[in-house]
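Hi C.,

You asked whether I'd gotten around to modeling the 87-residue construct. I have! Everything is below, sequence then structure, no commentary in between.
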Amino acid sequence: MTEYHAINVKRLIKPVKDYIYSDMATTVELMDEGAGCFVEISQYNSGEPGSIRVNDDEWELIKSEVDQMLQLGESLDKQMEEQNEQE
């Protein structure tokens, strides 16, 4: 039987009073396209991905989330290497 676990790989930073679909929302997401983990930061305007615009008020929280995702990615990459060595 295969064992599963849940990993939180996406965080949303937005103004407190805005909805989650706010144009001011920034997404920090841990990605892996087969060559190791990396972090993607994105914002959407009218449903289309666009440039990132960060102000002083949100930078510390975004930076904190990026740091956490990078640490998670490093940990996941290390786990996969260890599993592959055992096989």
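If it helps when you're writing up: The two ends are 17 Å apart (CA to CA).

Thanks,
B.
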